[in-house]
Write a structure and sequence with these properties.
5 copies of one chain form a homopentamer. Chain A is built from 10 helices and 7 strands. With 352 residues, the first copy, chain A, is of the alpha+beta class. Chains A and B meet through helix 5, helix 6 and helix 8 of A and helix 1, helix 4, helix 7, helix 8 and helix 9 of B.
Chain lengths: 352, 352, 352, 352, 352
């Protein structure tokens, strides 16, 4: 239960940095990419101090911090860049809702990076915070490994507009990459739904119901990660921040469209999963009906016949039929006739 | 799964042209219709360059491009008309949501052309992009064959206002034709629903449930194609673009009404399909009830009779009834009496 | 399917007059009532030309046209009163959604006149268009017979304010009469619902489910006719048109209240019909339960007894009970005791 | 069906006074309370004329009229106080939706007074109209008996602010009393729901379903009476009328809070009633399941045993078992063993 | 039923103080914490008079009153701080909806403090009212014991910003603590839901349905406590009150985010509980299906065999089979063959 950790913080002073994620003793990784249209420096550093020379230069600096469980580092970050304590609190609170905070000279954008963990076969909701200043982007991640490699590649190759468009464009590129990766995730989920859809008709087992419910719940969680994103990007597009110029806003509008598309997909999947539940329930009903028909046919055919056999098994002294030579074969004929008549009747009722 | 292709693009530089549709090696077709109230030139050309002379003349030029998988052509188009790279990206992304982009000197409108593929008996969602400049309309389609023939006819015959009303009116005429064709589509679906509605009562088979669900899902997809259209045309009607003058807006308001009407139809169909699901489920229940009644009647009549026959089949030495001469016929009379009483009881319970 | 006809128009030039209603060769009827506070002239004329003299006088003229399948007449109307081609197109498109078009010097209001066709026992959705100019009201209807007789009566008698309040007041009076008649319609439907409500409990037949669904669908259609009306009258009340003065707006506000009330009624009926569906389904379940109880009681009583009879019907050589003199009556006593015990058990379980 | 009466009015001239309530020949009662901080006069008068002297004095006058079926009186009222004909029409139309009409120099507020009729055990929806002028409040009720006695008491005793705060405060006090009385009503309904909730688990009878549906429908009607109230009081609080000064608005805000609370209660009850329906349906399912288990146990135990008995009741000449001395007791042992095994199996399946 | 008490007040003069909570004769407790950045005085006093000297000093004073059933005290409070009578009425009405009242020189904030009563295992909804003046916060609680201890600790230790930020910051700290405690509550509920979720699949008992419904209802009540909070804090954040400066608003925005997160959790839990209901219902259906299968298998196997046994139990004189030596063993072989065939058929149908 994700909630458990959020409750740890109750009653603390605001701005108290409390890492609510999984405890880790892994080392924090700081990676710098500093570039202008002509040059690009990329290196891994040990401390924030090593970053500061780059931030004063007239270049764009991307500081990527992996591992946010080191509170001293986060505090140092706050001091160096003059960030509000509440921003730092939000950044380390890995259960935070996606949100946008606009502090005139910097923006803080909190997003969820969603991807399928291949080994655990579960969906990872990793929190990524982006802090955008006029000439730098600071990205903070929970775990190693991210989806930003194509952006790094584009930076290194000087491919596209990216090297000449400033820090806001870099922030856009990172957000865009995160959002584009949602499509990968939903592709996987879409396949799962298609498989379920076939099974629900061919073999409606109770486990399938469980799987449908699990997917429905997953959808609820994904929705919570994506819905606020819509508002965030919409707020950025409205151009209220001086950090976002028209040249970036036109691209953000594109991300906005993608967000809408993802929300559409989520709603569609939810509708489809609800539809599958209806099919499942009616499949169970149908199966029960089939069972009932078998029982009814057997009973309807053999109960009367057994009655007839019972009649001629009685021990009355005076039963004229018993003495007749052809009585026994006649009775067989009668019973077969009843059987055939019943079968025809069932056929006419379309039970066979 | 349509989604699969959208995911191809993740992490790419924005404005990268990626055709996500079906791969094709078919040749791209470019058709020009250039007209003013007095004259009309119509021809098929090989390259965009052949179009450019017309665009500088004081006439309205309609450039219709079929096949958007040729990236060089799209890039050339962008260069010639000064289109934003994101517009080009959207145009070739055939999974794009319908949208309107207003770039002061041109408008980009992305729509879905919906029609039933007669051979595959499935609904085709073809993307059509319209680029409206002050004196030209560029329409981009995915596949050969479209619904624009009546517009071409009206242009050729100089019928109606169309020849004298400028490029915006032509764009309107194309949008209007696309929207009007939705009605054809929904007429087909309406017929399917009516047929299902009869079957669901007369013969509630599990396949019908499947068909209802398929139609429901189809409705979800159609809704996604039509809903955004409402916003797009509403935005055009609000008259924020200088390309759309009052003389065209009055017609767009008409298209807006049609869009509302189509959305109404979709909602009505959804309600009707939900209602059919209820009927289906209750039909299954009713059938089960019928089966149960048959079983219960047979069992209720013959189990007691069989018991009676069993009693007189016992081998006790001292059973006075067995010796009586009229015992056997008397028992028959009793059993028939029981049978008749039961039948009456069932009749009174309205089971027969 | 109403939709079918709307599709006829796809691809046509806008403003093309296409009558989509039932083809008719009935003659068109034009009725004029021209009045001022002192005088009233009422007559039936053959052509529009006969109306024109009245429209130039300083009186209010009501031109009521029944039958809109005569395209020449409609075109003449457009020419005489300077109406926009799209208005004419909407007027003859009998499947149009209720709407209000404001063209500065005239208003076009499209409404649905709803009433029960006594012979066919179905609800008629007849389209009525009102064109309001400063000194005239033109009403266009599909079929003969309307609900306007009380208005005509009030005009003739000079009763109430109607003779002295101008054309806008007349338009209001017509709309008010149409809306007031909706109440009659919903009264009929309310009675149907009450009858169904009694049947669904006393005799839950599959036909009732069908009737519930039919009513639900009817509600969907009625809703589509009434909902837009709310917006239309609300727009009129906001007083944006110079044709509607404060003296009329106060009355329109009253009509607005009635529209809200009708929408309330529709929503209430929808809720009630949904509730009936729940009752129906649970009634079916209950009935099945009753059937099951009968079967179970019969089986539970007689199967053990039959087993006992079967035991003493066995042919073992050494069965001491068979030789005993009181064995047979003892067995009867035992079987009756089992029967009584079972019956008591069922009574305790409240099955009897 | 309340609707029936509303339809009476269709086609009439607006402002025609039509009493749509129950016909009554009871005498109309007019009660006056005229007060200022120092003095209070309270009397019952025969005609409106007797009220007029009070209204010109510099005091607050409360005219309470019970019985609105006397059209002459209502018309006189309209004349004396200069009320718009539509206001009078609304006041006598007892099926009117709660509403607020602001006519600059007076306000008309239409409310529903809800209370349980102790004898009929049904909820009464009585319409109360308040007309607020600068120095008078006119209240119009349908039936004798109201909830205003505490207000009268406070006036007589000069308790609280009421005597010194003007007519608007009196109007507020009346509205407040009506709204406070809703709580009494919902208390009663809450108790009914609690009783049902216990019954639905202990004894799920079809009548309970009916009662749940009745309460649900009652909720729909109550909702229609309370929802518009929210808008009305919200409009009054916004302070658009010059009759409502800040000193009264602060109290109206309090009434607004209560209205919200009542709407909350209605929504909560609706949710609870829906939940009960689910419990009911699943209780029925559970009961059916229990019935099925009894049948299956009996059949599963005795059908195989009866088969065994049948086998040894056969008349084959050569059946070695029949001759054995211990065959009969051995068979009994076998049958008891089968019985015990079955019982254990059922216990393991948790059917017992 | 909480509602019962709210109804007590109907018809009373507004501002009449009526304590609607549980009657108590417990003594009221008044606790003062008076501080500035340098000093802190904390003591418990007997009467309000003892508080007044602190409020005139240039320090921040927190007056915490536990027990609001003493009407004289509340009235004295109103007099001393010049509070509006309606504020006092709301404060003592413990069933009040959370709300914010802005009276220029003071704010009144009514909240619900939610926590699990460990002994009764039920959720306590305690009302807390905060009155914020420029230099004081008055908090009023119903019962002893609250969640404010961490705030008191921070005040005493001078930890964080709290000592230097004025009264508004203290009010924020109290609200924040209350909201943070909601997370604890929802953690408990989350655990209950998880346990239920496991049970509903493994052992779908009717009691579980009851528990699901109870939790659903609890959710409805919690929702009513939390939803209005969102509006309240949103109103405070909009900064319309001069008492809330930008330095506090930035923190309130943080509380706002938490409120949204809690609302998200509530909606998620509601969805999950609805999903569990579906699983429960389908589990019952599945169980019934299993029961039916057992019955059908037993009946289908043994009814035909019993019939065969019955046939050879008949007493016809001429039945050639009876005389044959191998007839009896042959019949056994036939019966076993039928049994095996049936079992295979069931296996193919996946019933075994």
């Amino acid at each position: 239960m994700r909630l458990k950790r959020a409750a740890k913080k109750a009653g603390q002073s605001p701005g108290t940095l409390t890492y609510v994620g999984v405890e880790k003793d892994q080392k924090v990784k700081i990676q710098i990419i500093d570039y202008d249209p002509n040059e690009l420096v990329e290196k891994e550093v040990d401390s924030l101090d090593a970053c500061m020379p780059y931030t004063v230069k007239n270049t764009v600096t991307w500081i990527n911090i992996t591992g946010i469980h080191n509170m001293e580092l986060i505090e140092a970050l706050g001091r160096q860049f003059g960030l509000h304590p509440l921003v730092l609190e939000d950044v380390v609170n890995t259960e935070h809702r996606p949100k946008l905070d606009d502090f005139e000279d910097y923006l803080c954008i909190i997003l969820k990076m969603l991807y399928t963990d291949v080994r655990k076969k579960s969906i990872v909701h990793e929190q990524v915070s982006l802090i955008l200043t006029p000439r730098a982007v600071i990205s903070l991640q929970e775990f190693e490994g991210d989806v930003f490699d194509p952006v790094r590649e584009r930076l290194r190759k000087g491919k596209g507009r990216i090297r000449s468009q400033g820090a806001a464009y870099l922030a856009y590129a990172l957000i865009d990459t995160i959002v584009d990766n949602y499509f990968h995730l939903f592709e996987d989920i879409g396949e799962k739904i298609e498989i379920l859809q076939e099974q629900v008709i061919s073999a409606p087992q109770p486990q399938i119901l469980q799987q449908i419910q699990d997917l429905k719940r997953e959808m609820i969680f994904l929705r919570k990660s994506v819905w606020p994103l819509r508002e965030i990007i919409s707020a950025m597009v409205r151009g209220e921040s001086s950090l976002l110029k028209e040249n970036v806003i036109v691209y953000l509008r594109d991300v906005y469209d993608h967000t809408i598309q993802i929300i559409d997909i989520i709603e569609t999947y939810r509708d489809m999963l609800s539809g599958m539940l209806d099919i499942y329930l009616s499949s169970v009903s149908n199966k029960m009906n089939e069972t009932m028909k078998v029982l009814t046919m057997i009973a309807t055919i053999f109960i009367p016949l057994t009655f007839l056999a019972g009649v001629y098994g009685m021990n009355f002294k005076y039963m004229p039929e018993l003495e007749l030579k052809w009585a026994y074969p006649m009775l067989w004929i009668l019973m077969i006739a009843i059987f055939v008549a019943m079968m025809r009747w069932f056929k006419r009722k379309k039970w066979l």
